[in-house]
Amino acid sequence: MKTAVYLRVSTGGQHSDNQIPDIEAEARRRGLVLGKYYCESGSAWTAGHQPELARLLDDLRSGRRKYDILLVWSIDRLCRGGIGQIFTLMKTFNDLGVKVVSIKEPWADNELLLAVTAWIAKFESDLKSQRVKAGQARAKASGKHLGRPQGAVDKQPRHRAGYLGRWAGKQTSAGRQARGPDSTEAE
């Protein structure tokens, strides 16, 4: 059976390499043929921060790749958005003919246990967020500056993206700067 592998770590300081030995051992045990590894570093909480997961789904939908199984180290590697989000994601994979197999939760095909796991992942993520915010509030209350040091300069120039980049790049036909963000004129 053709198998895709999805690996994710939450921060750049972590390594998805820690997940690979378990993934490959499970593949050998099941006699699976490992295909593409989709690896990323980023939060599973915030939408849009999982471009590799989006690419995997796009590969499956477009027919560029066909997999029977998706191996993940743990369900919380896919998402931490709670029960609704994990069920939606699992249904999407199911509709595409792909069975999700979790190394750490071999019972993930049981909906009740999957719901409990998804709830725990979201709860754990929410607790971590609360602790970080409490620490930031305490530091700020004690007068500590949060964020970049004041006066810090980038070593390399930043590339403008999004609204600000589009606004800064707009030129009228006369070659002058287009309306700014405070303008009320319709575009």
Characterize this entry briefly.
With about 190 residues, this protein is an alpha/beta fold.
Description:
- It is a single chain.
- The protein has helices at 20-30, 51-62, 83-95, 111-141, 162-169; strands at residues 2-9, 33-41, 69-72, 99-102.
- With 187 residues, it is α/β, with parallel strands linked by helices.
- It has five helices and four strands.
- Strands 2-1-3-4 form a four-stranded parallel β-sheet, sandwiched between helices.
The main β sheet shows up as: 4 strands, parallel
Helix content: 40-55%
- Give the class-level CATH name of the domain at 2-118: Alpha Beta
In what order do the strands lie side by side in the largest sheet? 2-1-3-4
Topology:
Layout lengths: L1 E8 L10 H11 L2 E9 L9 H12 L6 E4 L10 H13 L3 E4 L8 H31 L20 H8 L18
Helix pairs in contact: 3-4
Key terms:
187 residues; alpha/beta; Rossmann fold; four-stranded parallel beta sheet; 5 helices; 4 strands; 40% helix; 13% strand; disordered C terminus
